[in-house]
Amino acid sequence: MHFISRCEWAFLALLFLYSFIPAVIGLVRLPELFGGPAIVPPNPRAVIDPVPITLHILGSSIFCLAGAVQFLPSLRRNRPALHRALGRVVAAAGCVSALTGLWMTVSYAFPEALQGPLLFAARVAFSIAMAALIAWAIVAIRSRDVAAHRAAMLRAYAIGQGASTQTALFLVAMTLFDTEPLGFSRDILMVGAWGINLAVAELLIRRAFATAHPVP
After folding, report:
1. pLDDT-derived band of residue 129, with 50, 70 and 90 as boundaries?
2. Torsion angle of the four alpha carbons 87, 93, 96, 97, in this order, in degrees rounded to the nearest 10
3. CB-based contacts of 109: which residues, under 8 Å, 6+ apart?
4. What is the maximal distance between C-alpha atoms in the chain?
5. Backbone region of residue 183 per phi and psi (left: phi > 0; alpha: psi in -120 to 50; beta: other values)
6. pLDDT in the model for residue 32
7. Tens digits of per-residue pLDDT, 86-108?
8. pTM for the full model?
9. Cβ neighbours of residue 105 under 8 Å, at least 6 residues apart?
10. Residue 195 DSSP one-character state
């Protein structure tokens, strides 16, 4: 894809790298879910009911990795048909990720140390919000409201990338305190990751709006 600029390649590489750890950890867990050896520490909830987490891993990986490509201006400008086709895949994967996340939250039994009431409520709320944002993005683009479409997809992408920011915050916390956050501190860290992502998304949306509508 020679039409992609060096700056866009760098942006794409950065997002791929940011998504790498949670995506790879998820993908290497798939053999375990179907009776293979456990490459990473086993998850008993996933082994008992592997369908939602399998769909969640696949949907999230596609949404985060393929979704990064969708933000490239040169792709939208030079390959609009590819952008639309890939967008359908990304939207479907994002809905699978959101709805299976909701499914696991309400059906899996988590110990209190791994999910308290705050994290439970946040997971439910963000799963529903992510699916609703993708649905709104589809409605907006069908109505030719490109700005609303891009804003909704960016917000949905920020929610979908929650695991990447959570991984980064966990690594920082474990480096500083030499222990894995559990209980309420874990809930705060997990919810805070979504907050950080959404704050960045809102800044990008405001910047794009200011660029498109400069003050005279």
Report:
1. very high
2. -110
3. 45
4. 64
5. left
6. 62
7. 999 999 999 999 999 999 999 88
8. 0.88
9. 115, 120, 123, 124, 127
10. H
